Amino acid sequence: MSDMSELSEPSTITRVVVSILYPFILMLGFYIIINGHYTPGGGFQGGATLASVFIARYVVFPVEDIRDETVHGWERLFLALIVLGPILLLFTGFVNDHPEYQIAYLTLMDILIGLQVGLGLSVVVFRFAFFRGVGKSWR
Amino acid sequence: MRYIALAFVSLFLFIVVTAVTVRHDERLDPVLYEYVTANFRDDTSARNGVAAVLLNYRMYDTLLEALILLTAIIGMLQFLPGYHGDDGIDDTGDRDGGGNE
């Protein structure tokens, strides 16, 4: 994009530190999501942590190569799965009748909620980060 | 004049809410609280009570929370113009991915 040249280059310190922190943010996010039923945390908190990966990526590498329609489509797919999961597993009484599947159910729902929230917050971040001013493009 | 009226309305609401929350003397038995804290481990096999409530006892709450997030994102995508293209008006048309210049 032409506007990229007007942005100042990110400093080397920022780039290196964020590059080091990148896998740890991912690991912390998935840890919070997967251990949601053992420790404080869960899908929403872990999803917000996963969304911060995209924020860090935008800080050091401000290139518009992610289409927010694609991310939004994945988010809607995960929302459909979030709705389908309890309808098929919980409201029919399957999980409460079979206690051996309860841990799997909780983990599945935490992962789905985490991915949905992470992708949704990523859409918000991308849309606001790539927003091009008010005067020329506001309808 | 509007600000004075707004200040009076805010003060009135503050007094009403404070009076209602401080002066009420209804006491409910903590039936549900005691049941959930005593039985969530056996009912849902989760060791975190919040996860047990959010994912089993009150699943509708979680569903509608996720739906609220989707609604907020749809509204934001509707009212913020797109970023591909120079005019920014037609943001549904030729989107070639960008980022390759």
What is the SS-derived class of chain A?
A: mainly alpha
Strand content of chain A: under 5%
Alpha-carbon distance between the termini of chain A?
22 Å
Beta-strand percent range of chain B: under 5%
H-E order of chain B: HHHH
Classify the helix fraction of chain A into a percent range: 55-70%
Cα distance, first to last residue of chain B? 55 Å
Helix content of chain B: 55-70%
Element order, helices and strands of chain A? HHHHH
Major sheet of chain A: none
Oligomer category: heterodimer
Uncertain regions spanning at least 5 consecutive residues of chain A: 135-139
Domain module tally of chain A: 1
Show the largest interface: A-B, 49 and 37 residues
Low confidence ranges of chain B: 85-101
Count of individual beta strands of chain A: 0
Q: Give me the number of helical elements of chain A.
A: 5
The Cα radius of gyration of chain A reads 19 Å
Which structural category fits the helices and strands of chain B?
A: mainly alpha
Q: Main traits of this protein?
A:
heterodimer, A: 139 residues, mainly alpha, disordered C terminus, B: mainly alpha, flat
Would you mind describing this structure in some detail?
The complex is a heterodimer of chains A (139) and B (101). Chain A has 139 residues and is mainly α. Chain A has one domain (2-129). Chain A has helices at residues 12-34, 43-60, 68-90, 94-97, 102-129. In chain A, helix 2 (43-60) runs parallel beside helix 5 (102-129) and helix 3 packs antiparallel against helix 5 (102-129). The model of chain A is unreliable at 135-139 (pLDDT under 50). With 101 residues, chain B is an all-alpha fold. Chain B has a domain at 30-80. Chain B has 4 helices and no strands. In chain B, helix 2 crosses helix 3 and helix 3 crosses helix 4. At the A-B interface, helix 3 and helix 5 of A face helix 3 and helix 4 of B.
